[in-house]
Amino acid sequence: MGHSHSHADESALSRPELRRRKAMRRRAVVLLSWILVPLAILTIIAMALMWPSTEGSPAAAGNPYAAAPGASIDSGTVQRTVTEDCSLSAGGSPGSSCFIAFTAADGLAEVPVLISPDIVQSRGVHVGDSIRYLNLSGLAAVTGVEQNGPAYVFMDFVRTFPIGLLAVLYAVVVVAVARWRGLRAIVGLIGAFGVLAWFILPALAQGQPPLLVALTGSSAIMFGVLYFAHGFSARTSTALLGTLFGLGVTAGLAAWAVDAAALTGTSGEYGYQLLNMTQGMSLSGMILCGLVISGLGVLNDVTITQSSAVWELYELAPETSTRELFTSAMRIGRDHIASTVYTIAFAYAGSALPVLLMVSLFDQELLLALTGVELAEEIVRILVGSIGLVLAIPVTTLVAVAVVKATGRVRAVQVSTDVVHGEAPGSKVLDNA
């Protein structure tokens, strides 16, 4: 059940050597289990104690897209578009132009949907687009008030097909390239979102301690995702241990940074709405939880890679000393640190691009812009996530080297003994494994 990198190499090995490697990995798993099993038990206990109860859940808010009596929300496909004088549309003012999309739904007659100017300016609405619109044509019959405004108003695009197509394409590409391991990774990802939806979010809404929720939920995700996607092996366990260490560092730094940087969580459009819906949930605590969760993917990536690097280096040269093995693996780790730090920074910069553009248009000092409420949260997320990531690499490398040396020491001694007595290396492995 070792890492896939070594499968091709093992096909050319002798049976004693294969059995020696399997025995070494089994000893490594037992060694790591003394640390990871208690951590897993603590995670399960913490989840059970903080599991959201149905009685304490906030009342569900109404559907924000629900229509008033007499109105409905319909969807259809745009047949043609025109720009006409607004006086031709009910409630329009003469002299100004309105963009109208004539839409048909389920074979019905075309309805003139008024498109808002911001949509026209940003992307526009084109023939063949599927859109959702507010149908106010029956409102007058219910209220008894004559309808003066437009009867059909654009709400949103229907994105089911393109997003569904991208999801299917993503799954096909992952499975085609990574095969069975890729399929397990996708299933693990679905399970991770299950933990997020059924534990982390409800627990936050019910006022559970954000730091404990973040640590418990993230640990549960990592235990499930890593072992399900990569299998139960010494490499995976080593990567998991390094991931949990990085997770702890990130959580500690996030707890300090959220308070020290005074991140309130009220700058977003949903901040005050969340306060009202959850009866005073801590928005800063939500930011704290987000800081921990946001770095899981990259943290998992570097620890798995670093653990595999140590095993590959050792299996290629088992006589390498502990110091040389650690130094060689850290050379790989430093390259990974450099590239991953860029990855984190650009990923967050891309997600916050509208905010960056808006701030760049303000006439203010650079330092004030970077530490202002608009960018402070993103910058803290980059810095906290990067520190946890960087520190996880040497720790993962050190643990991997210690485990691989502790479990492979018999092999190293046996090789030297075989060479001295003129025997083929590995001929007495079965007696010592």
TrEMBL record:
<dbReference type="InterPro" id="IPR012507">
    <property type="entry name" value="YibE_F"/>
</dbReference>
<dbReference type="Pfam" id="PF07907">
    <property type="entry name" value="YibE_F"/>
</dbReference>
<protein>
    <submittedName>
        <fullName>YibE/F family protein</fullName>
    </submittedName>
</protein>
